[in-house]
Amino acid sequence: MFVSVIVDPGSVESSRAVTAVLMEYGFRKAQRACWEHVSLPDKKLNLLKKDIDRVTDYYDTVRMYQYPVQGMLAVTEMSRKKWKRCLLRPTEDNKKEIQPKSPI
């Protein structure tokens, strides 16, 4: 599955530790605080969350965007050392294909 990780560290040490964990799992840096992996297996994702939890503290925030998760987009956030997850399902309006407008 595709996984994007956004890191908002509370300290330089936490930033270095999370970066080391993400590089260990094969993530590539997409932007300053954004890391991506295009084919991370579910088992590795669970291990990644445990490793991130191990190297972070109360002041760090980590947000993960995962697709597909049961055909939906999952947003998982670790804030104040607690993980929360939200599954986003497309609405009927979003399922319709958007037709491009003709140029003026």
- Overall mean pLDDT: 90
CATH class: Alpha Beta
Outline, from the CA principal axes? globular
CATH architecture label: 2-Layer Sandwich
In which range does the helix fraction lie?
Answer: 25-40%
Give the CA-CA distance, first to last residue: 40 Å
**Number of structurally distinct domains:** 1
* Structure summary, number of beta strands: 6
Give, in order, the helices and strands: EHEEHEEEH
**Spatial strand order of the main sheet:** 2-3-1-4-5-6
* SS strand fraction: 35-45%
Number of helices: 3
The CATH topology is: Alpha-Beta Plaits
Please compute the radius of gyration using only Cα atoms: 16 Å
Main beta sheet = 6 strands, antiparallel
**Structural class based on helices, strands and sheet pairing:** alpha+beta
Unreliable spans are none
Explain this structure.
By secondary structure, this protein is an alpha+beta fold. Helices cover 30% and strands 38% of the residues. The longest helix has 14 residues, at 42-55.
Task: Please name the defining characteristics of this protein.
3 helices; alpha+beta; 30% helix; Alpha-Beta Plaits
